[in-house]
Amino acid sequence: MATTHELRIVGGLVAKRYTSWGRGEHRREWATLRRIHRDAAGLAPQPVHAALAATPPTVTMTFVPGEPLAGRPSDPQLTTLATALHTLWTVGIDGGVDGWADDLAFGNALRDVDWPNPPREVAAALAAAARWWDGPDPDLLRERPSRLVLGHRDPNLANYLWDGRRIRIVDFEDARASDPATEVALLAEHLSARDLDFDRLAALFEVDERRLRAARRLWAMFWLALLRPGGPASARNPADSARRQADRLLDLLR
């Protein structure tokens, strides 16, 4: 998928220069960093300076140590990741953070996909996904959640930095109001988390299981759409990724 920014690290500071910002990514990240520093200092980089009106815009923040999570995180890493997310969810979402909206448009990406001569698994997944829209999940996901939290919304494991003791979170370009079940689903279904122990992860959160299941199905559809031939994620993943994702989606839809 396309890189949205460039990083320059000098003297303990990181200058993030945005290569695309049409969705307000720079303003969203700056506002989110400021709120995290206000309510949960140390969880994320400290905001230092922003040139939001510049072309291209930049946001400067402190450097945080740690190695990106990858592969199959250990039990201590998963526990610490859950602690970091719970802490993020305590941050106020007053002003400056986009309001809640349902995510059904992301599922539409698969409905609109052009996939000529799909493999058998993919064809079955496309048909099952089409039937999903006639079931109860879309209506459930349209309902405003009873609890709203500050959602990271970009749960690539590489955005969680482990220093051997704690985890800090980076990259808040997509942060907005969300709900815990959706945030867990986003993490579980991200391609970077394919080896993650979902049962172990889910046990660390108390969320609406029906909403979690519905959201996992939606985001599994989204990733299958991105893995289509010529799609944004197809060239950066193994050749059999679309088939594997189709099998995963079918399992979730059963």
Give the SSE map.
Blueprint: E1 5-10, E2 13-18, H1 25-39, E3 47-51, E4 58-62, E5 67-68, H2 75-88, H3 104-111, H4 120-132, H5 137-142, E6 149-151, E7 160-162, E8 167-169, E9 176-178, H6 180-189, H7 198-202, H8 209-226, H9 241-253
Antiparallel strand pairs: 1-2, 2-4, 3-4, 5-7, 6-9, 7-8
Helix pairs in contact: 3-8, 4-9, 6-8, 8-9
Which features characterize this protein?
254 residues, 9 strands, single chain, 40% helix, 3-stranded antiparallel beta sheet
What structural class do the secondary elements suggest?
A: alpha+beta
Total helix count? 9
Approximately how much beta-strand content do the residues carry?
5-15%
User: Can you tell me the residue ranges where pLDDT is under 50 for at least 5 consecutive residues?
Assistant: none
- Tell me the helix content: 40-55%
Distance N to C terminus: 29 Å
Globally, the shape reads: globular
Q: How many DSSP-defined strands?
A: 9
Order of strands across the main sheet: 1-2-4-3
Rg over C-alpha atoms, rounded to the nearest angstrom = 18 Å
* Mean pLDDT reading: 94
String of helices and strands:
EEHEEEHHHHEEEEHHHH
What does the largest sheet look like?
Answer: 4 strands, antiparallel
